[in-house]
Amino acid sequence: MFTWWSRFRKQQEAEKDDPASNSQLNEKDQRIQKLPNNDADLNPGELTFEEDTAGGMGRHLGVTSCTLLIVGRIIGTGIFSTPSSILSSVGSVGASLMLWVLGFLLSFCGLFIWLEFGTMFPRSGGEKVYLEAVYRKPKYLATVVFAANAILLGFTASGCIVSHLSILVAANQSAGRWNERGIALGVIFFVTLLHGLTPKTGVLIMNLLSIFKIVILVFVVVTGWVVLSGKTRVTDPHYNFRNAFAGSSTSSYEYATATFKVLNAYAGWSNVNYVMNNVRNPVRTLKIAGPLGLGICAALYLLANVAYFSAATKTEIENSGVTVAALFFGNVFGSVAERALANVITVTFAASRVNQELAKEGIPLPFGNKFWASNWPTGKSPLPGLIIHLIPSIIVIIAPPPNIAYPFILDVEGYPSQIINFFVVIGLFYLRWKKPGAIRPFKVWWPLAVFFFAAAVFLLVAPFLRPPGGIGDTPPLPYYLYCLVGIAIMLAGVLYWAGWRIILPKVFGYEFVPKKETLDDGTVVTVFSSRKTR
């Protein structure tokens, strides 16, 4: 593995140091992209490929950075904080482990679908781009609905919550209203300024923390093997694995809710799709970094869960809450705060690029979309896009109590994501049927796409099934509330689009005229002006 990784690092350095080679690679990617885009029906949004990729730092992320971008996003608060919640939902160790395996399989199916789309449309924005390419009418509806989800639910509050809880546990301090929120706010402000003002330093810290997280999880896994060998103070490390399925839940709701949490813990396999404008040789890099990054995380996740269950009883894990790793492994590994911080850094890095892409499409935002689409003030990193990400994060950190906020946030984030996944995979089938001749550098095996589609349907329906006793995992909140909140946010996007594109133009008698402007930093943005129709 080390030799294979070293070979890739040397090749990436050679490409970086050889401008001619790098230029050829970019030209190759552009040829792959331009051919299908000769068909106007396959060009997402108003901007061409060259216009969409202009501005910013350019293509500076190679295979190593992209792999670590995925690893850093996936290995975050989830594996250190949600095992107890998942175990409580499904009721048994065996069912919990099976859900982690299912999450791994679903994530790989999703990864392959996103690889097909990402290599067809190697642009920043991820699902925004794919939805725009498929759902072209009504115009801008898909963009605005995705924007509502990305902006209102694109926060990193869950990582900040775990960061402050972990710091307080490590410092042997009790959580109070102000110290817990103060730490969480400090984390999100630090990350925003880091990526907005010193983008190269931000990428370096992001990579180092990702490597550190891999080392930590390997340490957890190896320690689990030692515990299973019976040479530690754990008296019966195999206890949880006898009758592992005893006490398993029979509620579809419980399994659906737990699956949302597992998928949230695996979330991040599509992280490179959001920053493709910054990736060198994006088609090749995506095809390598995606499977490699997810494969590393999946193996470590499954083995880490075995380590958890070997070192603590089922009851202890269920009662540990969101600081499970800090309580049981703090004396050996330190707190989980640095892993949570690394997750916040990688999520924020990608989310700011998505927000910038939305602003570049001309979505109406306060102070005009040109500011939010820019790379102000450095000309290299989208600080305005980071600010869009910062605002909802602050609100979520300050408003609700953390012990209810964390599991509810995971649920609320998961449900709209499944709605988007549902429409993305339908879009895959549609393009396969409608545009069979389009160039696809990667094609997902269709049974995998069908499996992913079936799982998405189940995850959309099952949360509305009444759980045992009618109590969900975030009492006193109603069990179905997170689904309704997620749907309401998507509907808010529909209403915003209707007001912007239909109601106001009809009432005041005008129509939109799009034009393209190039900002001082080289970014090309779509700007709408109004023209009277009567």
Structural description of this entry:
With 534 residues, this protein is mainly α. Helix content is 67%, strand content 3%. A two-stranded antiparallel sheet has the order 1-2. A hairpin with a 5-residue loop joins strand 1 (510-518) and strand 2. Helix 10 (157-170) crosses helix 19 (383-398). The relative contact order is 0.18. The model is unreliable at 15-25, 32-37, 167-171 and 330-337 (pLDDT under 50).
Distance between the termini: 68 Å
The global form is globular
Largest sheet: 2 strands, antiparallel
Low-confidence stretches: 15-25, 32-37, 167-171, 330-337
Counting DSSP E segments of at least 2 residues, the number of strands comes to 2
What are the key terms here?
534 residues, two-stranded antiparallel sheet
Quick description:
With 534 residues, the protein is mainly α. It contains 22 helices and two strands. It has helices at 2-17, 19-37, 49-52, 63-74, 77-81, 83-90, 93-120, 127-134, 141-152, 157-170, 177-197, 199-228, 252-266, 282-311, 314-318, 324-333, 337-360, 369-373, 383-398, 402-434, 446-461, 481-508, and strands at 510-518, 524-532.
